[in-house]
Design brief:
alpha/beta; Aspartate Aminotransferase, domain 2; Aspartate Aminotransferase, domain 1; ten-stranded mixed sheet; three-stranded antiparallel sheet
Length: 442
Amino acid sequence: MDNTQITVTSPLLPELDELDAYLRDIWSRKWITNNGHYHKELEAALCEYLKVPYISLFTNGTLPLITALQALRITGEVITTPFSFVATTHSIWWNGIKPVFVDIDPSNCGINPDCIEAAITPRTTAIMPVHCYGKPCDTKRIQDIADKYGLKVIYDAAHAFGVDLWWNGIKPVFVDIDPSNCGINPDCIEAAITPRTTAIMPVHCYGKPCDTRRIQEIADKYGLKVIYDAAHAFGVEVDGEGILNAGDMSTLSFHATKVYNTIEGGALVVHDEKTKQRIDYLKNFGFAGETTVVAPGINGKMDEVRSAVGLINLKHVDEAIEARRKVAIAYREGLRDIPGITYFEDMPGVRHNYSYFPIFVDPEQYGMTRDELYEKLKSRNIYGRRYFYPLISEFSTYRGLESATRENLPVAHRIAEQVICLPMHHQLSGEDVERVLDAVRG
């Protein structure tokens, strides 16, 4: 029996011969960073591919989150999801803002629009959802909430995330998630809003879209910003429109584990030229010219080598996504009749990127717990991932927040204890998929 290791992911890598031509050109130009030729070319190419007006490249996926909050001058409290990588909430603290957690939508593991309005207070200024697992949040509902309360929306679309909310001196406030998408639950948002709330920060978990319409309604009602964490949502579209157009900003990660990568890297998607210019100042030490500094900036620029890798990978990413789609179809067919195992179907009108394939284990029906299945897979040299587990709200850094209690986040806790992501990447063979299915069936 074949016992070759099956990893949970595998990077999309350019052919060395193809990369060599770019490297030789970079060496001949002797311009390896600071808004070089390939940096400009990649920004233009990504705008076209992602159907967005402006994009600013960064050296990783964490810095766009931190910079987005700075660029929008977010303060007070930000409503976000506990079901994400820890960097989503870190970015809030880094800005000196208080995070407020709301529960998730189990249909996409993104923030549940039904929970947003209840989390809004006079201090709420923004919403920060995450497109979890590349599954788009309900961006329309989220935007409706944001518009209703006058909030900004910043989407975390990066998935490498980082350390951003606390760093900006902002307090994160957690709300529960929507089990239909594992994103922030719009029904939970308004109860979390206080006089200090300034933004909502949902996540398009697993790339499933949040309910962006409802979230925007809440944000508009309370005058909040919405920043989407779209780390998982590269290339995801809803009814032909790129998911990255939702909210006030969206962040992307181009980490090696993502559907599309630049080895390390990230980007911030904005909707107007003035904001794009401010972002570019902030990521380059605040310089607006050779001798003019207009803001306390950071060094977040992407170099030419990684820009070249990004340009090459952009040529091949559709092929990789199609390979992932076929794996997802095979998984669904093989898992369909297993009691206690559930998974996401494709959402109508959504162009998915198949960044992850999470399954949810009901131990009573399946006969073993998620952790027992995880260990069983490992014993067969198959590596899944308990993603996201534990919740951000369970870490000692955030456990003391009023919004971090288990009672406030029942759906997120249930999902976190049941989810395991099966291996998913463009290099999985039919035999690999059958080995995974046999292990889950057996």
